[in-house]
Write a structure and sequence with these properties.
Length: about 150
């Protein structure tokens, strides 16, 4: 089931945009559960620091997800070892109960967009995402992905 969801997520991601992404990876959660100990990690190899990228972190939940948002911590590590940890809110539903993201059947896709970012150095950057709410495990979370697209 997890492999099927992953393939569907990739197919949907590729069909949404005409530009080929520089980087596009998705982490699927087993049993639609995200435990605090599970921290999806994405490693991006950057060789040209003059290019500008749009970053999108995409969280996909089911329509049975119990909250209107999800707080996450984005941990970044540069090739030279510098680290940062930043909190971000991913909106899932509006106050009136309508979906903030794009709904298709029982799946809601919620983007967190960072536009026009440059990398400060060449090499492998690692981004780790950890869920940041008080519950140890949240359910009805399908997957989370990171996509980088070069700005033209």
């Amino acid at each position: 089931m997890t492999k099927v969801l992953f393939i569907l997520a990739l197919g949907f991601a590729f069909s949404r945009c005409g530009d080929t992404p520089y980087y596009d990876k998705t982490y699927s959660f087993e049993k639609k559960e995200w435990n605090q100990r599970v921290m999806p990690s994405f490693t991006v190899d950057i060789q040209d620091t003059s290019k500008v990228y749009d970053f999108v972190i995409t969280l996909r939940t089911t329509t049975s997800y119990s909250y209107n948002n999800l707080w996450v911590f984005l941990n970044s590590k540069t090739p030279s070892g510098l680290t940062a940890r930043e909190p971000f809110q991913i909106r899932i539903a509006n106050e009136d109960g309508s979906w903030f993201g794009t709904k298709s059947g029982t799946v809601v896709e919620n983007p967190l967009v960072f536009r026009s970012r440059k990398f400060p150095e060449k090499g492998k950057f690692t981004f780790t995402v950890e869920q940041g709410i008080t519950e140890e495990t949240i359910d009805e979370v399908l997957d989370i992905g990171l996509r980088l697209t070069e700005r033209k």
